[in-house]
Amino acid sequence: MVTPAGFEPATCPLGGGCSIQLSHGAAGAWFNSALLYCHRLFAAKKCGALDQSALFALTVEEPFRMIKLSKPSKRPLTLRDVSDASGVSEMTVSRVLRKRGDVSETTRQRVLIAAKELGYVPNQIAGSLASQRVNLVAVIIPSLSNMVFPEVLTGINQVLEDTPLQPVVGVTDYMPEKEERVLYEMLSWRPSGVIIAGLEHTDATRAMLTNAGIPVVEIMDTDGRPVDAMVGISHRRAGLEMARAILKEGYQHIGFMGTKMPLDHRARKRFEGFTEGLAKEGVEIEDRAFYSGGSALAKGREMTQEMMARSPDLDFLYYSNDMIGAGGLLYLIDQGVDIPGKVGLSGFNGVELLQGLPRQLATMDACRIEIGRAAAEIVLNDTLDEPDPDMPTRITLKPTLSFGDTLRRNRRT
Q: What confidence tens digit (pLDDT) does each residue in 292-314 have?
């Protein structure tokens, strides 16, 4: 038998001694399957190589297997598919999906409906090859286990919600080395901006931020020098103002409770400002306790009980955050202590969740949502075709002191 070009000889799969010819290449795969099937059926009848059950399988089951093999392979949808479905050009589809350019509302709706019905998702990687950026904003925070940073994320999302930008979150657990790894991975995706908590970083992290070539906004703290932009509050000033308010109301014997501070730089700065404010009036902290891990509410109860047993003459307890302050408040209420007459308390952060307590804890709002919004606006401004050159990039917000029910007021002027 002469073998045509592009084909190769093969022997009968049933061992009947016949010969067939198969096509080369992937394009001939379905043709080969069909040819083998026909040849096997012919050979089965010719040389008697199959019994009745095998012949049934070959004549009934094999065609269904071949139909399955003949299905076209799946491919991702493209702009061309949306263009064909909506009846507009690929360029117009691209403008609509990228939210760029002047497109009529009717055309925009037609494209969006077609894309939604098809289930089309734009290929951001392809789009980023030209711009060297993707529409992601890296948001790097130390924790999601407390009430502070979810509110920051809420502020960021409020600004970016109706824009092409999408926040992507990385968590560092207050570990500088982990922050370095998270930043490295996020920058490898070439985001449009970075929003990162704090001003203290490893040398490697600072070098990556400095040379990223995109807007970098360090948030929560303004007591230091930023790489690029910063939005937050002065934690030293917050501690100092709380000390002044406590002393003004006549409290003199003060205890402090908070987290272990080597890695929580903002809590450390508040403590430094607080002790500075006391020292200016000749007052020192008489007792202090620090914790790490576990439930902050439970730790607050436990530390307050232990501190009051050690130092029963304390008349004010300052907590580095509201959650441990709430635990202390609940313990003192259980003990029937006169609050704020005999013992006053205050925390920090202004956590809205704690408004359901029997008494409102004195606290200071950390401006979390406002910080998130301002940081996102700085990043968004940089992505605009015509950025606002007057957009402020060094923003220090002023927290508000709330006396609540645990800090007496106007005892003396």
A: 876 689 999 999 999 999 999 99
